[in-house]
Every structure is written in C-alpha cells, then in structure tokens.
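Researcher: Next entry: Probable L-aspartate decarboxylase (Halopelagius longus).
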Amino acid sequence: MQRAAPQEFTRVLSSMCTEPHPAARDAAERFLATNPGDPATYRTVARLEERAVETLGEIAGLSEPHGYVTSGGTEANIQAVRSARNRRRVEDPNVVVPESAHFSFTKAADVLGVELRRVPTDEDHRADVSAVRAAADDDTVLVVGVAGSTEFGRVDPVPELADVAHEAGAFLHVDAAWGGFYLPFTDHEWGFADAPVDSMTIDPHKCGQAAVPAGGLLFRERAGLDALAVDTPYLESTSQATLTGTRSGAGVAAAAAAMDALWPDGYRREYERAAELASWFASELRERGFAVADVELPIVAASVPESLFERLREAGWRISRTESGELRVVCMPHVTREMLVAFLADIDERRPSPP
Ligand SMILES: *Cc1c(COP(=O)(O)O)cnc(C)c1O
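Model: Predicted structure:
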C-alpha cells in the first residue's frame, strides 16, 4: 500500500486546528511513549504538565491554577460540568448555556445526566444576560460564557454572567477553547483577573499551536479539580482527576513546548497578524457586496449564495458554514494573505455575474 500523506493546509479555511509550532512537533515526537495519566511513573512529562498548567494560568489571569492538559475542549467542558454537578449536589441539576455554546455541552449533559438549558443570544450572537438570568434557578449548577465563539468569534459579557451564576448559587465556566490565546492581547473582560470566573477551557491545540491532542482545563479553587478525583488502585499515584486514563504525553509535551516558545510575544504577534488579516478579508468581501458580520476575533462570517459556496468547495477549498448558513473563515496561523487572495480570485471567477 502507498504511504498515506496528511492533507496540506494550503486550502484549509474552516479548521480551528493548525500546523504545530516546530518546537511542539519536536516535543510531541520525543514524548510519544509517555503517559501523563501515571505521573509517578512518567515523571518528566508530569513536570511538563505542571509547567503547562502554570503558563495556561498566566495566560488566563490566574496565579495559582489547578487543572490539567485534557484531550481537548470537549473533555474540558465535560469535566467542568461534572465538577460543578459533583460540588453542588442538587436533586435535578441543570446547566445554562447561550445558544452559541459549543456542541460539547450537549455531550456533557447527555453523559452526566444534567439538563442543558440553551438560551437565545442577542442580535449580535452574544449571550443575552437577562435570558440567562431568567433560565437560571436553584437547580442550576453551572452557567457558561463563551470567550471566542466557534461560529462568530464572539466574547460573552463574562463579568455579568458571573454575577448571574453566583446569584443563583452556581459556578461560572468560561469556554475559551479557541479564543484564549488571542484574548490576553485585547481589551475584553474574559479571564480570571477580570471577573470571579470559577473554571475555564483553553486549548493549546487550537490557537496555542501545540500538536493534537492538547486541551486545557483550569479551576480557580483546588476543590474544583478535587471534585473530579477518583482513587486509582493499580497506579503508582493514588488518585486521578482526568476523564481519560492513559493519555497523550505527546500532547502535553507539545503544549508545554509551544507555550515556552510563544508566550507572550509570539502569541501577541500572531494575534496582531490574524486580526489584521481578518479585517482586511472582511472589507474585501464587503467591497464585493457580501454581508459580513462584524469581526471581533479573527473569524470572518459572510453570507454567500449556496451555489457559490458549493463551487468553492469543488475548487478544493475546505470551508464550512454557521448553523444559520454563513460562510465561515477562521484566520488560523496557517492562513496567509496569499491564500485569501487566491480564495478571493476564485470567488470573483465563480460568483454569479451581477444582473
Ligand atoms: C473547538 C471548541 C471546543 C471543542 O474543542 P475540541 O478540542 O474540538 O474538543 C469547545 N468550545 C469551543 C468554543 C471551541 O471552539
């Protein structure tokens, strides 16, 4: 059989994953045969994980973070729900999320047997604080705010959501899986230093430029992580808070290496580049008469005709759509101006000619 080759990134505009940083690639290879799920045996990778959590804490504004490197944002979100459910111990637990929340919360609710209350967002796709307040009650264990939503890159009003959560006796979780490596360089109030946030998802394998799998889960209080721990009879260590057992030392080492190489200046430069690129691309689309949503973080969402979308796909572009149908272009590190110039040329060639 021919040796399989992965796709190239030259036409990938829809993904939230990217080319890993060279230091991350190297670390992933070197730590392939390690298991941070058994930290007393695999001590070096366990130290790298502590270091990765420290840096994630710095990025998110938390000086003594408690957490770990997950398999991704999905695991981190499931675990945040699980921790809140275990700590609150109400009869009939529910979680309140804005409509813009990632589908991993649907999985979390299903696996954990909690009710998911999805409330409408405002006209700009951000969580509507009064709708969240109306949906929360005594059985609410967790309220979720999204900091960098998957479809429109929106940042929810985190301080207000924290107030709503705490008034209801619930915890406040921020999902910054995608946005967390951009937000420190913006004026948004999203992190542990901006509001009484209890937990956060922040993924090195998206904008952190680590190798997959490397997500991040952080708690302000030790008790958040402790609520997840189970006893582990046959390992050298005696308890485990992760959802997975054996897990990827490659992801953990890659996360530590990428953050060592890039935090803060490398990430700042990438944020500035991506933000500039997204606003340029949005204006190019507007000049062509397409309706484009305001750009908040480097995702561009634009209404294009279905037929054009299909023709662009046939031309080899990897593109996706929002639930409401907009073309969505995520300006990840591998997305360059040259790529988008070529993409615009394909749009010009394939769009229906004006009447
Ligand atoms: C990508 C994403 C997730 C899920 O992360 P995975 O690493 O794909 O499991 C969760 N929340 C947000 C906001 C995301 O963008």
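Model: Note for the record: The chain has a mean pLDDT of 96.
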